[in-house]
Write a structure and sequence with these properties.
This is L-ribulose-5-phosphate 4-epimerase. Its EC number is 5.1.3.4. It is an enzyme of class 5 (isomerase). By secondary structure, the chain is an alpha+beta fold. It has one domain: L-fuculose-1-phosphate Aldolase, CATH 3.40.225.10. It is built from eight helices and seven strands. A seven-stranded mixed β-sheet has the order 3-2-1-4-7-6-5, with helices on both faces. Helix 5 links the parallel strand 5 and strand 6. Bound molecules: 5-O-phosphono-L-ribulose. The site of 5-O-phosphono-L-ribulose (HMS) has 10 residues, from loops.
Length: about 250
């Protein structure tokens, strides 16, 4: 049985609860069928992360049956859930945590439209402002990689390092997203599917109009730095970026 400080134990318990609960969001947003997706969350202040057990139905996930792993993807023996096999994508999640220290959450799904782009090995071009806001450009494609070792993780890290996008379409497979925590990575998975769907439909109707790169930059900057609630409170009365920042 591992002994953790009270602070680390509290953080583990919090991440267990978040990871278990957030899987319901994958169902709510239609990003998964059966058990085809997984979420993990890094434990702040420790070289640990929590991931779901492999092949267990989302309705059966509880904080206690989530699995605590070290950053090499080894299950921590004697901890709740450690009698079960962790997600088949554990090595990929672990590789991301080891190599992207700012990442606090990872999500994988086979959501339909994003995976359809992945099956063609084509990046989703940035032709809608919502995608510019969220991803700051295209949603890129990562290499074809077979599950079982860290090649999926290497593909994710190689594609997303230095890229604005928090989502990668792993060729012929599905989507991996990263975030500051598990919830943030879930949001990226929801937004990636939404973009992939809209741009796909647009393509059926004709040729989508590209957004100029400088406009993408402005949209991304505004959404990342101004949009929503700030510690200062309400947005500027003018409704302009200038006013928003005051
Ligand atoms: O993509 C795959 C398998 O190809 C897995 O991510 C998916 O089936 C979910 O597996 P887990 O239930 O997390 O082991």
């Amino acid at each position: 049985m591992s002994d953790f400080t009270p602070e680390v134990q509290e953080a583990i318990d919090r991440v267990r609860a978040d990871v278990a609960r957030l899987h319901a969001e994958l169902v709510r947003y239609n990003l998964v069928v059966w058990t085809g997706g997984n979420i993990s969350g890094r434990v702040p202040g420790a070289d640990l992360f929590v991931i779901k057990p492999s092949g267990v139905g989302y309705d059966d996930l509880t904080p206690e049956n989530q699995i605590l792993c070290d950053l090499d993807g080894n299950v921590i023996p004697g901890t709740p859930g450690s009698d079960r096999s962790p997600s088949s994508d554990t090595a990929a999640h672990a590789y991301v945590y080891r190599n992207m220290p700012d990442v606090g959450g990872v999500v994988h799904t086979h959501s339909t439209y994003a995976t359809a782009w992945a099956a063609r090995g084509e990046a989703v071009p940035c032709v809608i402002t919502g995608q510019a806001d969220e991803f700051g450009g295209e949603i890129p494609v990562g290499p074809f990689a077979i599950i079982g070792d860290d090649s999926i993780g290497r593909g994710i890290v190689a594609t997303l390092t230095g890229h604005r996008s928090r989502a990668v379409l792993m060729q012929n497979h599905g989507v991996f997203t990263i975030g500051k925590d598990a919830k943030d990575a879930v949001k990226a998975a929801v937004m990636a599917e939404d973009s992939a769907r809209t741009v796909h439909i647009s393509r059926q109707l004709g040729e989508p109009i590209p957004i100029p790169p400088e406009s993408i930059d402005r949209l991304f900057d505004r959404y990342q730095n101004v949009y929503g609630q700030t510690p200062q409170g309400a947005l500027g009365a003018s409704g302009t970026d200038e006013g928003d920042r005051q």
